[in-house]
What we know:
Blueprint: H1 3-11, E1 13-18, E2 21-25, E3 44-49, H2 60-74, E4 78-81, H3 98-104, E5 116-118, H4 130-134, E6 149-155, E7 158-167, H5 184-187, H6 192-203, E8 210-216, H7 231-247, E9 251-254, E10 260-263, E11 271-275, E12 290-295, E13 298-304, E14 308-315, E15 320-327
Parallel strand pairs: 3-4, 4-5, 7-8, 8-9, 9-11
Antiparallel strand pairs: 1-2, 2-12, 3-13, 6-7, 10-11, 10-12, 13-14, 14-15
Helix pairs in contact: 6-7
Amino acid sequence: xxxxxxxxxxxxxxxxxxxxxxxxxxxxxxxxxxxxxxxxxxxxxxxxxxxxxxxxxxxxxxxxxxxxxxxxxxxxxxxxxxxxxxxxxxxxxxxxxxxxxxxxxxxxxxxxxxxxxxxxxxxxxxxxxxxxxxxxxxxxxxxxxxxxxxxxxxxxxxxxxxxxxxxxxxxxxxxxxxxxxxxxxxxxxxxxxxxxxxxxxxxxxxxxxxxxxxxxxxxxxxxxxxxxxxxxxxxxxxxxxxxxxxxxxxxxxxxxxxxxxxxxxxxxxxxxxxxxxxxxxxxxxxxxxxxxxxxxxxxxxxxxxxxxxxxxxxxxxxxxxxxxxxxxx
Length: 329
């Protein structure tokens, strides 16, 4: 065994193997004592999930059913949707039958009718990504007003305590996509420089009312999954990390990896979450940034208060496998 492997083995505690589920914790994290999802009052509560649209296949329905039960208890203000909304190749138009097979017929419960704020994944770029923007004019809950956009949300209805959420399109930020036969035609229509300029402008907002800055995108900056050293992960890190560092982004929420992860680099301002397991689950492994990584179907519940964010990771069985608190420095 080499030294790095021994260090990771010591730093990470292998805590659970439940059927096909594997959960890894960093040395400062552990399984929660209470495994039932909890609503946190006087907070901005929302659910985050991604990589979901499979016409009900591969656990999409069980995860959706559990999300409905948890949402009834949490009463989220909205849903943050981390992309790859329609497998295998996006939708052809705002009238594509997949809107019914993968969205409307599955997430039909009343609790799902609150606002959805989606971003585009790479699979969404294979067909007509603009159709997902157009669907916002048909659906009351689907709130993708453009391929990237931002929203201000109040904590406990207090407009002096706000959360800036910036929803971005990571696909044009990946250089290799421009040469890809499937993604290339739609990526080439986008101006990545214009989006970067826009992201900087949004994040430069210095209003004293903004207490937290959160970015939501499809591709992660770091990962403990198969794409840890992928060209897409490296591209996002090169494009966005300097911006996040400059403007003090508190949380980055992504999908793409079909797992549930919390990664954080010591002393870094940004905490990284991956919630991409709403219809498929893939393997995770130990890295020096892992605080929690789960190969499990599920989603995350975010509860934002003035000085603390609580993140509960929930599996398709409804069990909370991780409850993390991030304190504002």
